[in-house]
Amino acid sequence: METVAIVGTGLMGASFGLALKKAGFDGKIAGVSSPAAIEEALDHGAIDFAAPLEEAVAAAGLVYLAQPISRIIETIAKIGPFLRPDALVTDAGSTKVRICEQALRNLPLGQFLGAHPLAGKEKRGAREADAGLFAGRPYVLTPVDAGQMETAAVREFLKWLGAIDARVAIMSAEEHDRVVAYTSHLPQLLSTTLAATLAERLAPGEVRISGPGLADALRLAGSAYEIWVDILATNPGPIETALDAAIARLQELRSNLNSSQTGRTFEIANEVSARARR
Amino acid sequence: METVAIVGTGLMGASFGLALKKAGFDGKIAGVSSPAAIEEALDHGAIDFAAPLEEAVAAAGLVYLAQPISRIIETIAKIGPFLRPDALVTDAGSTKVRICEQALRNLPLGQFLGAHPLAGKEKRGAREADAGLFAGRPYVLTPVDAGQMETAAVREFLKWLGAIDARVAIMSAEEHDRVVAYTSHLPQLLSTTLAATLAERLAPGEVRISGPGLADALRLAGSAYEIWVDILATNPGPIETALDAAIARLQELRSNLNSSQTGRTFEIANEVSARARR
After folding, report:
1. Which of A117, A171, B42, B84 is the most buried (most CB within 10 A)?
2. At which of B171, B198, B225 does a domain end?
3. Hey, are the CB atoms on B206 and A250 less than 8 Å from each other?
4. Is the same domain home to A37 and A65?
5. pLDDT for residue B109 is more than 90
6. Which residue, among A264, A273, A278, would best test binding to B if mutated, counting the most B CBs under 10 Å from its CB?
7. What is the structure's pLDDT at A1?
8. CB within 8 Å: A209 and B239
């Protein structure tokens, strides 16, 4: 690929641009975004030039959609007519089923590879972009079938993912959405619920009567609804199932607060905590 | 006070010893603990010598109980006969009502000042002790009445709390236990529940398909049940109330996942998150 089009030059898109350049990509990177986001991305050297969507897509061997989920879905509906036949379209959306369905309806079969880099940080925007954002982090790919992974365009994309040290995991879009309902969406909603419960039950000064653990527990509660509204809208079934499981567990814990069963629950939780934090 | 007795020389007790010394305390610090804990505390300079409980208490102007809650309750029942009439007994237990009730039954009125330093770290033991552990952290005191704060022994203790930069907050034992049910016990149980839900619903490899936020959300899930069994046993009412509030909130969130009400919940959570992490 000689030209890459990054559509949406926020934290993810701009970080992908920086990561590619750091890994030795010497082609051109076109950015498609709002004027403010383009300016930041140019300032940080994450893109080489700005272009309208149609023009950037028409020039690109790789089209990287790094917008919010609802915008990715809109963009997929528009780009078909401009796409080069050898180009690969991929994305960085946090849910996969709805996006992949949209691609199946709107793009030639096999030209879209759904993806979700499980990377990020608290602050948003190209000014926070980081060439190392994907290093050592899972990068889920949801191909339509095993054959898609063998196409020339996907093989080249995989080569670059290796070069930026992303840890590729391959699964179906459905499997992805089920897993992240537990590993990402449930933790977010538990942290949001904790914060909302504190707001409801305590005076503002009472929240300060807390140990250092509370700040960790409330970190995700700081996430922007702007991002989450799309995640909640595009993965309701798995999220409801995950919430039901957690509510059942909480009710069980409440009923057995002082029984040895709670000791066993802590032991299981200790193991998961140690594993997830290695 | 010329001699301090620290009963229980784990992370909290040993850190208090180091903090006192760093703040200029030039008396002697006696340690009462298991042989292994005493050895670690001596190695780290957190105490000056080891002594049996009766002897340490008989010599001390300040008796600092930094054992697990159930052991503090046992110790309070034993020390009355050995206590100097001018000595102050205080503690570092994470719940206050049961400990203060025990003190009312077993010690002369006004000689015990319930306390809870909201400080700590993930690792335990005197080898992790830190003279700066209390600096800038809330240090709750639960006096029996306002008059107790004016006694000479309490005034001297307050002077040392100021010297180690602890942020003193005064409230009743009941108020303390209600507040920490939300700011400490609920976050712990939500993190434990998250971990147990992941263990139940996901294959071990699937837990790795997660972003950096999951590690934060699972940090508290790594806490030792050994510590928590006493907390859950001595604060069941407020914890059940806090769990009920969180369960109701979660159910509400589940029923309104894609309504604007969830947007409002995120906004409230954003505010609490920002406040708690300042």
Report:
1. A117
2. B171
3. no
4. yes
5. yes
6. A273
7. 85
8. no
With CB atoms and an 8 Å threshold, state whether B182 touches A190: no
| Set of chain B residues whose Cβ sits within 8 Å of the Cβ of A137 | 211-212
Question: Which CATH number goes with the domain that contains B34?
Answer: 3.40.50.720
Look at A211 and B120 and tell me if their CB atoms are within 8 Å: yes
Our CA angle for B138, B139, B143, nearest 5°, is 135
Contact criterion met (CB below 8 Å) for A123 and A219: no
CATH of the domain at A255: 1.10.3660.10
Question: Do B105 and B12 share a domain, yes or no?
Answer: yes
Domain assignment of residue B44, given as a range: 3-171
Note whether A172 and A140 are within 8 A (CB).
no
State the total domains in chain A.
Answer: 2
CA quadruple A255, B118, B168, B153: dihedral positive or negative?
A: positive
For residue A262, what are its two tokens?
Answer: 């709670």
Specify whether A167 is located in the same domain as A210. Answer: no
CB A245 within 8 A of CB B197: yes
Helix axes A186-201, B236-255, angle to 10 degrees: 120
Report the chain B residue with the minimal C-alpha distance to residue A203.
B179
Residues of chain A with pLDDT under 70: none
Rounded to a whole number of angstroms, the distance from the CA of B233 to the nearest CA of chain A is 6
Which residue in the set A184, A225, A249 is minimally distant from B214, CB to CB? Answer: A184
Are B200 and A249 within 8 A, CB to CB?
yes
Contact B176 A224 (CB under 8 A): no
Q: Mean pLDDT over residues B105-113, rounded?
A: 97
CB pair distance less than 8 Å for A212 and B121:
yes
The whole-model pTM stands at 0.96
**Is ipTM strictly over 0.90?**
yes
Which ranges of B9-68 does DSSP label H, i.e. alpha helix? 11-22, 35-43, 53-59
Spatial contact of B44 and B68, defined as CB atoms under 8 Å apart: no
Consecutive H or E run containing B6: strand B3-7
Beta strands in chain A (DSSP E): 3-7, 28-32, 49-50, 62-65, 88-91, 112-117, 138-142, 167-170
Q: Chains A, B: CB contacts under 8 A, how many?
A: 312
Same domain, A98 and A196: no
Q: Which residue has the tokens 């507040």?
A: B179
Instruction: Provide, as residue numbers in chain B, all residues whose Cβ is less than 8 Å from the Cβ of A266.
Output: 192, 223-225, 228
